[in-house]
């Protein structure tokens, strides 16, 4: 009888966790079987439900709205976490465009979408860094502590002005961080273009289109070797920004 009393509340927890796993980085990839995702969501929801304060939620007309609210909350938390990781791919895309690699994209097996070459390369390193820094544990802690900010029975103001401003601010921060991370390499490659233009004017007999491409590729890879440590430090700060953004998002949705 007690199980039937708290079973609707458990379904709400399961809806939020499952939808969170549908969009959050690392857990939402297509290479992970759906049965594993559902099983992990179920057991994690059961563990979280046993550790949190239980509420008896009746099965009335508003229960469907609560389920929809939990799904939207989980999707928003995972999507905003993915936005910060998408900045890494934007960095690779900007560098690819300047190096001349933008003409060829690769299929990302994790998402099934086209991705720039260096963007996919840096994104894999960012995922390894996320695992090394236990960032996946922070993501799971975030969805657990989200119930302190957004209880099961609360109404979520997704159409609120503050939520729209936060979403716009997060989008802008993603592009600003991507531009800051790629600016040294892109700026250096721009100087290479200027130097090649000067050489083309001074030595007209030299076919600059044949010489310029390998020069830019070699310089780009050398700059990547030099800047890789700096990119890792910037990615670590990006993960910190992701955690802070999730906390602020939960506060805005929860009305705190």
From TrEMBL:
It is found in: Cell membrane; Bacterial flagellum basal body. InterPro entries: FliR (IPR006303), T3SS_IM_R (IPR002010). The keyword Transmembrane applies. It is a multi-pass membrane protein. GO terms for biological process: bacterial-type flagellum assembly; protein targeting. It comes from the Bacteria. Keywords: Bacterial flagellum, Cell membrane, Cell projection, Cilium, Flagellum, Membrane, Transmembrane, Transmembrane helix. GO terms for cellular component: bacterial-type flagellum basal body; plasma membrane. The chain crosses the membrane at residues 6-27, 72-97, 118-139, 174-196, 217-239. Role in flagellar biosynthesis. Belongs to the FliR/MopE/SpaR family. PANTHER family: FLAGELLAR BIOSYNTHETIC PROTEIN FLIR, SURFACE PRESENTATION OF ANTIGENS PROTEIN SPAR. This is Flagellar biosynthetic protein FliR.
């Amino acid at each position: 009888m007690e199980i039937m009393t708290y079973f609707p509340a458990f379904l709400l927890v399961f809806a939020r966790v499952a939808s969170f796993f549908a969009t959050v980085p690392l857990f939402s990839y297509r290479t992970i079987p759906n049965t594993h995702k559902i099983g992990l969501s179920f057991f994690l929801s059961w563990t979280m439900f046993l550790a949190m304060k239980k509420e008896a939620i009746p099965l009335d007309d508003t229960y469907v709205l609560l389920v929809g609210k939990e799904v939207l909350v989980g999707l928003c938390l995972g999507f905003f976490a993915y936005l910060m990781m998408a900045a890494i791919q934007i960095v690779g895309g900007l560098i690819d465009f300047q190096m001349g690699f933008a003409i060829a994209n690769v299929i990302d097996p994790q998402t099934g979408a086209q991705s720039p070459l260096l963007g996919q390369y840096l994104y894999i390193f960012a995922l390894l860094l996320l695992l090394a820094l236990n960032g996946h544990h922070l993501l799971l802690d975030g969805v657990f502590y989200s119930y302190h900010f957004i209880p099961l029975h609360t109404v979520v103001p997704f159409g609120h002005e503050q939520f729209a401003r936060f979403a716009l601010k997060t989008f802008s921060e993603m592009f600003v961080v991507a531009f800051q991370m790629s600016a040294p390499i892109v700026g250096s490659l721009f100087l290479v273009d200027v130097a090649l233009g000067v050489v083309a004017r001074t030595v007209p007999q030299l076919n600059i289109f044949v010489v310029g491409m390998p020069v830019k590729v070699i310089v780009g890879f050398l700059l990547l070797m030099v800047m890789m440590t700096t990119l890792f430090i910037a990615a670590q700060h990006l993960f910190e920004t992701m955690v802070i953004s999730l906390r602020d998002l939960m506060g805005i949705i929860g009305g705190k």
